[in-house]
Amino acid sequence: MQMSARHLYLFVLNGKIKTIGGTAFLCDSKLCCKLQQRHQKSWREILGCTYFLKSSKPWKTVGNCSKYTLIRSYSTTPVRYYLTPPQVNSILRANEYNYKVPEFDGKNVSSVLGFDSNQLPANTPIEDRRSAATCLQTGGMLTGVFDGHAGSACAQAVSERLFYYIAVSLLPLETLLEIENAVENGRPVLPILQWHKHPNDYFSKEASKLYFNSLRTYWQELIDLNTGETPNTKDALIGAFKRLDNDLSLEAQAGDPNSFVNYWVLRVAFSGATSCVAHIDGVDLHVANAGDSRAVLGVQEEDGSWTAVTLSNDHNALNENEVKRVVSEHPKSEEKTVVKQDRLLGLLMPFRAFGDVKFKWCIELQKRVLESGPDQLNENEYTKFIPPNYHTPPYLTATPEITYHRLRPQDKFLVLATDGLWETLHRQEVVRIVGEHLTGMHLHQPVNVGGYRVSLGQMHCLLMDRQARSASFFEDQNAATRLIRHSVGNGDFGAVDQERLSKMLSLPEELARMYRDDITINVIQFNSHVIAAYHRMGSGDSDAQ
After folding, report:
1. Which of 50, 120, 345, 435 has an alpha carbon 20 to 30 Å from 371's alpha carbon atom?
2. How far, CA to CA in Å, does 156 sit from each of 273, 294, 397?
């Protein structure tokens, strides 16, 4: 009898196997090789599940890496194992962060009340990143989520640098000149951003000098090219995205005398990251998106119900306009190979991203950089691999799609999240959960079974679950944490399945990524009173869209 590791784990985890009929299964894969060393250790320690095996002899590995093969008889004792509620909360809250905009003279004059943020890893280490900052010289707030792939290096670099490029792009000529003169004469430089970061959201100190020099070159060019016009927010966002991606590429090509920094800039360039950023200034909301993360607006209707308004488009094969754009940028002879199996060149899911020079550089440039690069890079099979049908690069762009929205009093919050959230929850469900979390109105709504036929017993269970939820309504103070709880423990009728939540959070590192992606969420709450005042005064004329 043979069974894949994943299926065996599912059967044990879900309680399908109460006993193993006097037989034991074993493999020599990475997942189970620890059996050789641990001998009589428990299934819970080795596979993260809930059954202890009793043995008087060591394990032996047989068969291939992904199969279990019968080797001898064992007796089993079923023992259920779940994380306790405090353990679940500890995992969910490890990376949560919240920020409240300070008041002046007892009043909040900002259109933003504050934001809640959180992330839950599936990859080890997590490949997602997040950022939030206040623009000190121009006003407004920036917030964004960044979904890395092929490693976390690119997402890390973009999360540190992109907001500086955006802020500089928005500065008037006088401020740019003042900053350049201060740097030139060794004087303190005007602060551009006030960061709002969780302690785990670190900066790369080793590359800070390189980052500053590239940013300075950018603002010097802005000074030289300045026409005297007020910067346009849409153009500033597009320019910042494109310039940062270009700098990531140039830094990798130029190299660095510091061996660590040299290896780092190459890791950044050969990995990739999608980006979804919001800039909020008064009633002007701009969303810049490149990739498949999303921005969704939560709108409260007059009857108290919630409506989801999407402010971004996914840049992948499910977006017909995006497919047409990509195909149109290459010769007709590549019409059937540019997008294959719903991926760019059959490999990459997002059609827009930072980094990913394997989809941007010509083959000759890739080979030259790799040959002159450090040994660690040449030992990486991914970096050496040339995509199939690679004829007319670049195939990938970091140019964002900009969406403008003029905020209204009924616009209560904005959710920015990586695709790990949207793969498990529909946008309307996301808005409902956040809206009810912020207002507490879900305690007064009738039970909704979504058109399903339910028995009296099932309805009783739903009401009991609702009673339990109402008792712990203030369990999560952070709206992003609440969303992650629902996303991971998503059960019937929109409720959190506590048993499922516990099981999913107890998955070992080797298996977690099979069932979910990294999840990163920023929930920005708007100040309806300030927004209404903008409309009453007739101000808030739309920024250049």
Report:
1. 345
2. 9, 19, 19
pTM exceeds 0.70 for this model: yes
Q: To which H or E segment does residue 384 belong? A: helix 381-384
C-alpha–C-alpha distance, residues 544 and 235, integer Å: 9
The sign one gets for the Cα dihedral 429, 431, 434, 440 is negative
DSSP 4: B
Q: Which among 147, 201, 145, 146 is positioned nearest to 416, based on CA atoms?
A: 145
- Both tokens of 530, joined, read 């300030």
Give the C-alpha separation, 295 to 309, whole Å.
Answer: 9
SS3 state of residue 243: helix
> Rounded to an integer, what distance in angstroms lies between the CA atom of residue 249 and that of residue 487?
36
The label of the residue with tokens 């969420």 reads 521
pLDDT one-digit tens code per residue, 137-148: 988 999 999 999
Residues in the chain: 545
**Where are the extended beta strands (E) located within 480-542?**
519-526
Which whole-number Å values give the CA distances from 257 to 209, 247, 261, 338, 399, in the listed order?
Answer: 13, 17, 8, 37, 30
Residue type (1 letter), 304: G
Amino acid found at 74: Y
In this structure, the number of other CB atoms found within 10 A of the CB of residue 518 comes to 24
176-227 confidence digits (pLDDT tens): 999 999 999 999 999 999 999 998 898 888 999 999 999 999 999 999 998 8
Nearest to residue 485, comparing CAs of 120, 122, 124? 120
Nearest alpha-carbon partner for 164 in 178, 179, 151, 148? 179
Residue 199, judged by CB atoms within 10 A of its CB (0-12, 13-18, 19+), counts as exposed
Which one, of 294, 346, 288, lies nearest residue 317 by Cα? 346
Pairwise CA distance, residues 539 & 286, whole Å:
17
